[in-house]
Design goal:
20% of the residues lie in helices and 29% in strands. By secondary structure, the protein is α+β, with helices and mostly antiparallel strands. The chain has three domains: 264 residues, 3-Layer(aba) Sandwich (Rossmann fold); 62 residues, no CATH class; 217 residues, Jelly Rolls, CATH 2.60.120. A hairpin with a 4-residue loop joins strand 1 and strand 2.
Length: 594
């Protein structure tokens, strides 16, 4: 969950013309159309008072539907959106969560928002500016807390629009039961009552801190002591919960709570949104258990966006350049959605079907009735090789014909190896075209390529990898990434997934590896991607260890990973088997014909 900064407001010109002349009249700034209400106090059921900054239409004549965002990033962060919505006739309440900004109480991330959200919605519904209909707006944490509030079913909550919303345990504070030192950075950002954006945004400081800890081989459970005077209780609590189960279930709606929801929902995420997995877990679970009426009122948008761009789209993402169609006016779309769901207006034109997704490369939006129907076929590509596939130049094959018969491929991962730390610390982690880390790990990973595509081919949906792997230690971690490699050699990251060997059969319990026989690993949590692969391009699959300054380090000993240090390190030999008895296979999601 990363905070975002909205672009500065601009003043447009309204041009009026007739046959004889053209007059230019300055547009009235949105700020002139609103009234600001500072320090509004909202009582909760336990007596704690939350703080709100409230934006209402200037000289509001009648009660109207209202918009709420509940944020740990302090209410002033959303000033531009507050002004925008109020200028379009929708009172906007930007509310500091408990323990943040000017709100009372103690901040306990995630778990507090369900009941607090209920109380805030019902309080807003009683205000003179509100006609009894309350909607929610916001992304990241403010996307999560929409689901948390909705599961409590406040009577006056009319609709939610969760954007890039994490699903607790699935993508934050861990993914595949693998945590990240970024937790410390985020908890520092939300510590105390004031904003910490300057320190939070100092990437050089955090890279240096995480690099130092990585090189020293310090345990993950000592992360909270990395900053003098700062030891967040939430980090200790999360570290003690390394698997999915009842603890994380309490943060998210249950199946019964999803099923009971009876409000329109618009879910928004992006192909490169770090919380896409969470957003789509909420979406998929709801769509699986909801009534036919509920499913019919749930819409999904997946743009070519990273986490921040799910609220303010940009054409440039991670070194890639997207077409003008990618720049959807999301504030206007929100207003149209609220008008449709709360005021009897027309359905937004953009929502042609229930699922809208942007095809990168083709630079166009496509539509489907369901998320599943985006994919026409999952085409199997067998992993194979004639020599050890541990370099880019000497890679193995992804074959769409025949049978894999080559000998196993292998690499050795030594957790004591910190040789790439300096390169990683100096690299841009958001660059989707940078190959420096892949090149630096030659002989430490496995690489496979398809043949060049004979014609442009749309890939839309979710990759899946079934790999037969043997290891000679009780545990280790894997990262798998799929790239497009263009005819002129440029690399574009498409999607990735990760796994910890001890959780190969379940994320709710661990089973250490006790055999050197090959075991099946199913990588089935790749991120959604939609891209037209150019004629002449190939797909590249890279499978290797997770040996990163930005990820919890597994030293392969089989002990609790959070407690391991460099002294526990065990080199592991990883063998990937691909023969008739063990058909390691990458399943490629081909899009629907145009």
């Amino acid at each position: 969950m990363r905070a975002f900064k909205l672009a500065a407001a601009t003043t447009a010109l309204l041009i009026c013309a007739n046959l004889s002349h053209a007059a230019v009249t300055p547009k009235i700034p949105d700020e002139a159309k609103i009234e600001l209400h500072w320090g509004v106090k909202i009582p909760l059921r336990d007596g704690v008072m939350l703080n709100a900054t409230v934006y209402t239409p200037k000289d509001q004549a009648a009660a109207a539907p209202c918009i709420l965002t509940l944020t740990p990033y302090t209410s002033q962060t959303y000033n531009e959106r507050g002004v925008y919505f109020a200028a379009h006739g929708l009172p906007f309440f930007s509310v500091d969560v408990r323990g943040r900004g000017d709100s009372q109480g103690t901040f306990h991330p995630f778990i507090q928002e369900a009941k607090d959200g209920y109380d805030v919605v019902e309080w807003i519904a009683r205000q003179p500016s509100c006609n009894g209909k309350v909607a929610m707006w916001g992304g990241s944490y403010a996307g999560y807390d929409q689901w948390a509030t909705a599961k409590e079913r406040p009577p006056h909550l009319a609709t939610i629009v969760p954007v890039a919303g994490p699903y607790a345990g699935m993508d934050f504070p861990m993914h595949a039961n693998i945590a990240s030192p970024y937790l410390l950075q985020w908890l520092f950002y939300t510590a105390g009552h004031t904003g910490q954006d300057q320190i939070m945004g100092d990437s050089a400081y955090w890279n240096s801190l995480f690099k130092q800890r990585f090189e020293r081989g310090q345990s993950f459970d000592s992360l909270g002591a990395a900053i003098d005077g700062f030891d967040p209780p939430a980090l200790r609590e999360w570290t003690l919960q390394p698997t999915l189960g009842a603890y994380y279930d309490a943060f998210n709606p249950s199946e019964a709570q999803y099923r009971a929801l009876n409000i329109p929902i618009l879910t928004i995420t992006g192909s490169y949104d770090g919380d896409q997995l969470g957003a789509l877990t909420h979406y998929r679970t709801y769509m699986r258990v909801a009534s036919a009426e509920g499913r019919d009122r749930h819409y999904l948008i997946i743009g070519p966006w990273d986490h921040a761009a799910t609220r303010t789209p940009r054409a440039d993402i991670g070194g890639l350049k997207f077409g003008p169609a990618s720049l959807v006016d999301l504030p206007a779309l929100h207003v149209q959605w609220y008008d449709w769901t709360m005021a009897g207006g027309s359905k937004p034109d953009f929502l042609k079907k229930h699922v809208a997704y942007y095809v990168m490369g083709a630079e166009t939006w496509r539509y489907a009735d369901t998320l599943e129907s985006v994919t026409a076929e999952r085409k199997p590509y067998l992993l194979d090789s004639i020599q050890n596939a541990d370099t880019i130049a000497g890679s193995g094959m992804l074959s769409d014909a025949g049978v894999a018969n080559g000998p196993p491929d292998s690499y050795i991962y030594d957790p004591r190896d910190t040789s790439t730390a300096a390169l990683e610390a100096a690299s841009d982690p958001t660059d989707l075209t940078d190959t420096s880390m892949v090149l630096a790990n030659d002989h430490k990973q496995l690489v496979y390529h398809t043949r060049p595509f004979a014609k442009a081919t749309e890939i839309s949906g979710f990759f899946r990898l079934t790999a037969w792997i043997s290891i000679d230690q009780p545990d280790t971690d894997f990262m798998v990434t799929v790239y497009e490699i263009t005819a002129d050699g440029h690399s574009i990251e498409l999607s990735n997934d990760m796994a910890r060997a001890r959780y190969r059969t379940s994320l709710q319990s661990e089973t250490l590896v006790t055999t050197k026989a090959p075991l099946r690993y199913d990588f089935d949590s790749f991120m959604f991607v939609s891209r037209r692969i150019a004629a002449g391009s190939r797909l590249r699959l890279v499978l290797g260890p997770i040996n990163s300054i930005s990820t919890q380090k597994n030293y392969n000993s089989g002990k609790p990973v959070s407690r391991e240090t460099m002294s526990d390190a065990r080199p592991v030999k990883v063998m990937l088997i691909h023969d008739q008895a063990h058909p390691s296979t990458l399943y490629v999601p081909l899009g629907q014909p145009e």
